[in-house]
Structures are given as structure tokens and as C-alpha cells.
Amino acid sequence: MSPRPLNVGLIGGGAGAFIVHPHERAIHFDGTRRVTAAALHPDPKIAMQEAANWPYPIRGYPSYDDMIKTEAKRPLGERIDYALIVTPNHVHFDPALKCLAAGIPVFCEKPMTVTLDEADQLVAAVRQHKIPFGVAHTYLGCWTSRFARFIVRSGLLGDVRWVDAYYLQGWLADRTEDQGVVQAEWRVDPKRAGASCCGGDIGTHALMQLRYVTGLDVKRVSARLETFVRGRQLDDHFTTYCELSNGGKALVRATQIAIGHKNDLGIEVNGTKGSLVWVQETPEQVIIRLPSQPDRTYWRAAVVANDGFLKDLPADLMAEPNIPQGHPEAFHDAFARLHRCFEQDVRAYLDKKPFNCDGSKYATVADGRTGIAFIAAAVKSHEQDGAWVEM
Length: 391
Ligand SMILES: NC(=O)c1ccc[n+]([C@@H]2O[C@H](COP(=O)([O-])OP(=O)(O)OC[C@H]3O[C@@H](n4cnc5c(N)ncnc54)[C@H](O)[C@@H]3O)[C@@H](O)[C@H]2O)c1
Hints:
The protein is built from twelve helices and 15 strands. With 391 residues, the protein is of the alpha/beta class. The protein folds into two domains: 171 residues, 3-Layer(aba) Sandwich (Rossmann fold); 196 residues, 2-Layer Sandwich (Dihydrodipicolinate Reductase, domain 2), CATH 3.30.360. The strands form two sheets. A nine-stranded mixed sheet has the order 14-13-12-11-7-10-9-8-15. Strands 3-2-1-4-5-6 form a six-stranded parallel sheet, sandwiched between helices. Strand 9 and strand 10 form a beta hairpin. It is globular, with a radius of gyration of 21 Å.
């Protein structure tokens, strides 16, 4: 018998919002999840109006407090099975903590919180309630990210010596926040964004991509947070030089003032035997380069086991792609893969079976905390003129 679809409750995502939409499509991608409830706006009246205007019927709530309290009392199968938090950064912690206390699993946007103390509290709450918690580091959901992770961890490139992980954008090169762009307004406000704009918003994606693909952690950072656009309180350009857990080095860098760069997230991993390149704007490819050999470009869905070069490709990785090669997968597919994997853990949790949020399929609460610790260390280093700061 087909499983009942899981019910998802949105926190944030009213008219004009951005990231709720890729998530909403991803939730509905497989037919096994659907949006059934939402608290869409901080103003209760607007929240209800926007829920009434949603393209299909949902239970609208005037606030996330109301949604959490009311949904938690509904019988299983009728209540939300997990909450998706797509509010600005300062409205992640409170609803997340309340959901966890009410037994509702949480899929939360990044950066997970605004302060390290909040991040610690979420880690503790997840541990206490033994409940699934995911952080929406989108690009872990690209099939090619998983393939790149396999390649690096297989040892094909030797020991990792040097990584360049970057996220370059140009949309804040001007005072976008004064042009009625709500997404820019809150991102440059320390009360709503946190201690860093550029680092928190997209530097955390570059960091997560580095950690996911290499399996290495950042041990200490030397950082510069710069503000090129006059009048801003937060950085729009973020550069960290990092020492990795294996003794290797890395640059984790991000900018929002590089005109022409759109969502130019990428990673180059250099090992003692070879290197690997993955770029988000060409997300179907991974390039492997070994000395004295032609560069190899591997395309999603065109990777075959036993090609005479790659060995021991994991069966679950090979089973995953379902769109034939040359029909590009991208942003929405990555979100769908994250929700699909999170769904498995939520179903296990609801069935009181073991589940394993181990970070191999989506970012965990511990990964979310690492992102916040990284920003805190970078800010401290910058304040000390770029001195090395331990994570
Ligand atoms: N994973 C990614 O690739 C990615 C991309 C963009 C944004 N994000 C993250 O997603 C989050 C949202 O970003 P966005 O660009 O979509 O922002 P946005 O401003 O477009 O949308 C935020 C939404 O939250 C609502 N909201 C604010 N306070 C609320 C409250 N108290 N209760 C209910 N709703 C409330 C707003 O009304 C709006 O609908 C941020 O944390 C951001 O960092 C992640």
C-alpha cells in the first residue's frame, strides 16, 4: 500500500518571499510529501490572508506559536509531520526550539541561528528529544556533490593539501537594501542577519561544501570581513584562510559585490595525487585531474560502474539519479533530494524506529552549529586584525 504523504508546515514564506518556493516544489516533488499548514507572516492578519490566498487549501495560522500548539494536538496523520523554517535568520531559533519541544521534526534554513548560544541550545534539544533536524544546505543535495564526496574520500586524489571553497555573488554591489528588495534589507541588518551578512548568508554554504566533500573540519581561521558598500553595518565581502583537521589549508571565501557573479559557488580540492573541481552553476559535472593524464569530466547519470578507472562506486549513489543524462538537474532537484532524505528519517521517527541523521544526506544540527561557530571565529579573528582563532 502506498504510504500516506507526510504533512509539512511552513514557518515563513508569505507573498514576495524567496526560498519558500524552491522548498515548496521540492516538498511536492515525489508525491510523498505535501504542504498542509502554514504561519506565513509576522503580522497575524496578513498571515491569515496569505494562507487563504495560497494556491491550494492549507490550514493558515496567525503565528507559528499557534501553529505549533494546535498542530501538536492533532492526531498523527492529521497534524504536520515536520516544520520547514524559511524565515529570516533571527526567526529560526525560537520556532525551531518550540517545534522540537512539541515533538515536531524541523527542517531549518541556514544559517541555523544568529548566535552560538542559540545553536548550542538547538543541539542540546535535538539530543534531548531524539528527533530529526536538518539544515537546508542546498548544494549537498546535488548528485554531483555526493559523487565528489565519494571521489575525495576514496583516496583517488591522495591527501587533501589545499582547498578553495568560494561563493561569489554581485547582487549587493550597490545599495540594494534601499531599492525595496526585502531580501537585501534584512540581510544587512545585524539584528536580523547576525554578526555577518556575506559570511553568514553564503560563506556558510562554501564552508559546508568543503566539509561535506572532503570530510575535513576547519580547525582555525584567519579572517577579514570587509564592507565595500558605504553605510552598511555588516560585511559584503568575506575571506577566511583556514587550517584543516588533517593539517591542510583552505580558503573559504565569499563576496556579494562581484558584479556579474550570480550564484557562483564552487570547490576545488587539491590532493597529493590529483585535484577535483565542482561548480554549482554547472552542477551536472565533476572534473577530476591527475598528473600526466587527460582531465576527466564526469557527468551525472553518465557515470558507470567499472569504467576501468573508478572503483567501488556505492550502490546507493549509483541508484539515485533518475533523469537521463543531458536533461539537467539543478537547484530544485537538490532541494528535493534533501527533503526526500529527511522524509526517510521523519518516517522512521514517527514509526519509533532508529534513524540516523549522520550528515551524509543532508546537513545536521551539528553542521548548523559548526557554521555558526565558524562565523563567530571569523568575526573574532577580524576584530584581532586577522589573528588565528580556534574554532
Ligand atoms: N538554502 C539556500 O540556498 C537559501 C537561499 C536563500 C535564502 N536562504 C535562507 O532562507 C531564509 C529566508 O530567506 P529568504 O531570502 O527567503 O527571505 P524572504 O525575506 O524572502 O522571506 C522570509 C519570509 O519569512 C516571513 N517571516 C518573517 N518573520 C516571520 C514570523 N515571525 N513568522 C512567520 N513568518 C515570518 C516573511 O514574511 C517572509 O515571508 C534565510 O535564513 C536565508 O538565509 C537559504
